[in-house]
Amino acid sequence: MTDNPPLLDRRETVARLLRDRGDLLVVTGLGSATYDVAAAGDDPRNFYLWGAMGGTAALALGLALAQPNRPVVAITGDGDMLMGMGTLATIGAKQPANLSVVVLDNERYGETGAQPTAIAHGVNLTGVARACGLDAPEDIRDMNAVGTLAERLHRTDGPLFANIKIDARDYPRVLPARDGPWLRSRFREAVLGNAP
To answer: If you write DSSP's letter for every residue of the chain in order, what string do you get?
Structure first.
C-alpha cells in the first residue's frame, strides 16, 4: 500500500462528479465503476462497458474523437486503467480537448478478490498520464477537489486525467442493463438522435 491510504467514499464521489452532468457522455469500466455510475442515476448517455477490462479509456477516446463538441468522460478503476495504460499514450498523441479520464483508485482488483494492483506497489498512474501529455493534477483525496474536477469535466481544454483515491469497501451492486445491443442503441440514440 502507499503511504496515504485511500480516503473517499466511492459512491459519494461518483454521485458528486455526475450531479450536474449537463450533456456529459459517460463511459464506464467494468464492475464497480459501472455500479457507481448506475447508482448515481441511470441515463441513456451512460455507456456501461461490461466485461471489456482495459478498454474503457480507448472507447472513450474514440467517442471523444467522433463527438468533438461533446464532453466525454471515462470513469474506471485502477485495475482497468493499468490494463489499458497504453491508451494514455494514444490520448496524449491525439490530444482530444473534450476527453477526461477519471480513475477510481482503491489499489485493488475489486472484481476478482481484492488483490493489490501495481498501484499498491508504487506505480504512479498520475505520473504516467503526465508523461503521456495529459493534464493530470495530483491524486484527489478530498471532496472539494472532486467538486473542482466535476466542473472541469465540462471544459474543452483537455485531455484531463484524474486519479481519485477511494476506499476499498464493498458497496451494494446497482446493476444497470447488461444487454449490449440495447445499450448501444440507447446510447447512440441519446447521442445522435434517430440518425442511422
So the answer is: --SS---B-HHHHHHHHHTT-TT-EEEE-TTHHHHHHHHH---TTEEE-TT-TT-HHHHHHHHHHH-TTS-EEEEEEHHHHHHTTHHHHHHHHH--TTEEEEEEE-SEETTTT-EE-GGGGT--HHHHHHHTT-B-PSPB-SHHHHHHHHHHTT-SS--EEEEEEB--PPPPP------HHHHHHHHHHHHHTT--
Give the CATH number of domain 10-192: 3.40.50.970
Query: Per the confidence metrics, is the pTM higher than 0.85?
Result: yes
Q: What is the pLDDT of residues 109-154, one digit of tens each?
A: 666 656 778 888 888 999 999 999 999 999 999 999 999 999 999 9
